[in-house]
Amino acid sequence: MTTPDRRISLVTGANKGIGFEVARQLGQAGHRVLLGARDVSRGQKAATILQAEGLDVRYIALDLSDPASLTAAATDIEANEGRLDVLVNNAGISLQGDGLPGTADLAVVRQIFETNFFGAVAVTQALLPLLKKSRAGRVVNVSSGLGSITLNNDPTWDYAAVKLLGYNGSKAAMNMFTVLLAAELKEHGIKVNAANPGYTATDLNGHSGPQTVPEGAAETVRLALLPDDGPTGSFSANEGAEPW
Q1: N or C: which end of the chain has fewer CB within 10 A?
Q2: CATH number of the domain bearing residue 191
Q3: How far is CA 45 from CA 23, 29, 54, 77, 136, in A?
Q4: Known catalytic residue at 199
Q5: Does residue 1 form part of some domain?
Q6: What is the residue-level pLDDT of the chain in tens, covering all 244 positions?
Q7: Which member of 171, 186, 191, 199 is catalytic?
Q8: Quick check: is 171 catalytic?
């Protein structure tokens, strides 16, 4: 069982990219990190790399589309950690076939929503009893500037041409989830916020983003480490507040 003063964090989709770097930075901040990933071999390999860096990290199997996997993860954390202090909903996908509302493949749109939105809601619901055991729980939903309805409606925005019904829509739904969950959990002292990592070079975009992965992880980590007087129900990037 983890000692009471050691913060315990779970990061979903953490075997690579921003999720992996978030896990690393939280470990460097002194957290015990549960590295969540669907693929066992990749998840274990990622955890081994961080363990070799001297960080307190262990792999935990987590398939957001499989209720049995979520139940097993919650049971594991309850038995071995006793509680959860930080949940980072990082897992996300972008797929070929997504696009404008008039032409997007609806099967692809549904698949994106299943991971990016419904998966995040499902894992949060499964782990909520453990978060409520924390002295100061934190939930960070990794969103995107593409999830901002305000920015999508601005023709002068740098990314105004990126009109993806599935991806943008799923991140907008994550923003709504953030606001509603923050209101629901306020009385429990659990802070819920959404992070926009910015356009970061990862597998998701063919490594085309101008930001480095550590830069892309920074805002998510900041929100995960919020002090007691930090905000809840916010949406922010490295540069500051983002419009909904």
Answers
A1: N
A2: 3.40.50.720
A3: 13, 21, 15, 20, 30
A4: no
A5: no
A6: 455 678 999 999 999 999 999 999 999 999 999 999 999 999 999 999 999 999 999 999 999 999 999 999 999 999 999 999 999 999 999 999 999 999 999 999 999 999 999 999 999 999 999 999 999 999 999 999 999 999 999 999 999 999 999 999 999 999 999 999 999 999 999 999 999 998 876 766 666 677 789 999 999 999 999 999 999 999 999 999 999 9
A7: 171
A8: yes
